Amino acid sequence: MKNRLHQISFGFLFLRSFVKRYYLYVLLGLFLGFSVFWVWVNFNSVFFKQTPSEKVGYVGNFTENTLPTEIETKISYGLFELDKNKVPKKALVEEYKIKDGGKTYWFKIKEGLKWQDGTDFKTEDIRYDFKDVEKKVINDYELEYRLKEPYGPFLTLLASPLFKNKRLVGLGKYEVVEINKSGSFINELIIQRYNIEKGRKGKVIDRIEYRFYPQEDTMVTGFKLGEINEARGLTNVYGLDSWPNIEVEENVDFNSWVGIFFNQRRSILAEKDFRQALFYAIESFKFSEPKVYSPISSENWAYTKNIKSYSYSPADSQRLLEKLDEGKIGKEKITLIAVKPYDKYLEDVAQSWEKMGINVKTYRSSVIPGNFDALITAFKVPDDPDQYYFWHSTSRGNFINFNSPRIDKILEDGRLEYRTKQRKEIYSDFQKYFMEEAPVSLLYYPVSFTLKRV
User: Fold this and answer.
1) Is residue 272 located within the same domain as residue 225?
2) Residue 43 CB partners (closer than 8 Å, separation 6+)
3) Could you give the CA distance from residue 405 to residue 425 in angstroms, rounded to a whole number?
4) Does some domain include residue 66?
5) Single pTM value for the model
6) Same domain, 331 and 429
7) Are residues 412 and 423 located together in one domain of the fold?
8) pLDDT digits (tens, 9 = 90+) for 82-138
9) Contact 374, 260 (CB under 8 A)
């Protein structure tokens, strides 16, 4: 113990003597060390500052030509862009005129625009794949499209982002800096935004890394492993809402709706009264998602509230069923199929119909079946109110064999009209008669979840 104290005492005396003799060198060393440390920290923060980076996950198989709209619109613009109500607004276009009763469209694009590779953007670069449309380049900044007949949704089509030679070289704020693929499908896409100084690209100010997963559960696993810090479009939160530093965002998709599609090749389902009776019988108050009232999105400029509404009403359902052959109704068996993940209320709907004396058999499916009576699935709402492809009796997209001469005529008129006021009146009629015919029982707008690491 005494030896230990002696060693400590000797060390202290030696250190004091050293500092007293060389204190100037000690102070200078401390000053230089602190200065070097301060300069290094600040140099690092200025010149080696990491670019803010989002790592975002999506579910689906995407190619360079089928990227989600949200990503495409970051990379490039179309001649027009759609506002939140899907109204076409000028983007790359400076002026435009519609002539010849809607058959000729003249455009003047903005001057001085450049592709992301630095080359000038000119009218000859505009390549939309339109059938039966003649394109006439007048000069570097003016062009015309000539249609065989008027087509109301034409400006909406011109909102599709343009890319140079079908590559992901665009005109937008973000540039593609890296693409990783498996075959033709993209696994990872990285885009960056630059600070523009005097017309030239400066430092990177934003970076987004997109990862694409084949299935929802694999994306959730990727989120847990830290591959991404944001997982979008989930059908549920997988218990991660209780994890620390995880934020859950609920999103209503007003660009889609879920409904029950009636195959009208079945004689009983071709009866409008029967379809309406099924609609009235559904206990929609059980649904937690926002209710749908029209085939056109409630956020679209053409949407109207002045149409038939099918609130839950067993009395109305019974009244309509009594107009039909009661014996026939009792013998009819309706096969109700739900496509996953839209099978949440399959049994609730079936029980609602069974309460009205209708014999129902239910199935779940991972794909849209070729044969069905009633099908619960999602409908992607077009940006333009034109829904000719889905409901006109002659269209290949009319997979439920819906046939209404009145609606056929309305849809035909809607395509031939380009003036907004007149189109709004036409599509108000479309919504009114569509809901009266009830080819589909409209249910709800789907809700998805986004997980964010904060």
Assistant:
1) no
2) none
3) 18
4) yes
5) 0.84
6) yes
7) yes
8) 999 999 999 999 999 999 999 999 999 999 999 999 999 999 999 998 988 999 999
9) yes
Same domain for 395 and 261, yes or no, is yes
- Residue 143 inside a domain? The answer is yes
Q: Write the DSSP string, 306-356.
A: -S------HHHHHHHHHTS-HHHHHH-EEEEEEETTS-TTHHHHHHHHHTT
Do residues 342 and 423 both lie within one domain? Answer: yes
> Domain count of the chain?
4
Residues 281 and 374 in one domain: yes
Q: Is 239 contained in some domain?
A: no
Domain end marker among 186, 201, 234: 234
Assess whether 436 and 296 both reside in one domain.
yes
Indicate whether 126 belongs to any domain. yes
CATH number, residue 160: 3.90.76.10
Taking each helix axis from N to C end, the angle separating 420-437 and 272-281, rounded to the nearest 10 degrees, works out to: 90
Q: What angle do CA 22, 28, 30 make, to 5 degrees?
A: 105
* 255, 259, 264, 265 alpha-carbon torsion, rounded to 10°: 90
Sheet of strand 53-59, all strands in order from the earlier edge strand to the far edge: 174-182, 185-197, 200-213, 53-59, 230-234, 447-453, 246-252
Residues whose CB falls within 8 Å of the CB of residue 329, separated by 6 or more in sequence, listed in order: 268, 274, 321, 357, 358
- The whole-angstrom separation of Cα 390 and Cα 396 is 8
Domain that holds residue 112: 78-166
Write the CA distances from 136 to 99, 121, 127, 130, integer angstroms: 14, 16, 12, 13
Nearest to 411 by CA among 384, 376, 449: 384
Burial 386-396 (b: 16+ CB within 10 A, else e): bbbebbbeeee
Q: Which helix (H) or strand (E) holds 97?
A: strand 93-99
pLDDT, tens only, 230-256: 999 999 999 999 999 999 999 999 999
Backbone angles phi, psi at 166, to 5 degrees: 65, 10
Distance CA 95, CA 77 (A): 16
Residue range 358-376: mean pLDDT, rounded = 94
Both 145 and 265 in one domain: the answer is no
